[in-house]
């Protein structure tokens, strides 16, 4: 489902996009989706920083788990 929203854009940019036949709605949607993904990832890393640091320390001290079974 799609939702109507209001956005404010620089008028020169909006005019150029229209002249070029660009679909501003789809471009804005894609940019917002990308920004949301980046923010979700940033928050996940922040929320899990302690566990990630603990695992990195474990690997640094003891190597990768099951490393002796690797064939590459």
Mean pLDDT: 95
Low-confidence segments: none
How many domains in all?
A: 1
Total helices: the number is 3
Number of strands: 0
Structure classification: mainly alpha
The 3D shape can be described as elongated
The gyration radius over C-alpha positions equals: 22 Å
H/E series: HHH
Helix content: 55-70%
SS strand fraction: under 5%
> Mind describing the biggest β-sheet?
none
Distance between the termini: 47 Å
Short description:
The chain has 72 residues and is an all-alpha fold.
Name the descriptors.
mainly alpha; 3 helices; single chain; elongated; 72 residues
Description:
- The protein is an all-alpha fold and 72 residues long.
- It has one domain.
- Helices cover 65% and strands 0% of the residues.
- It is built from 3 helices and no strands.
- The chain has helices at 11-19, 24-47, 49-62.
- It is elongated, with a radius of gyration of 22 Å.
- The N and C termini lie far apart (47 Å).
- 0% of the residues are buried.
- The model has no long low-confidence stretch (mean pLDDT 95).
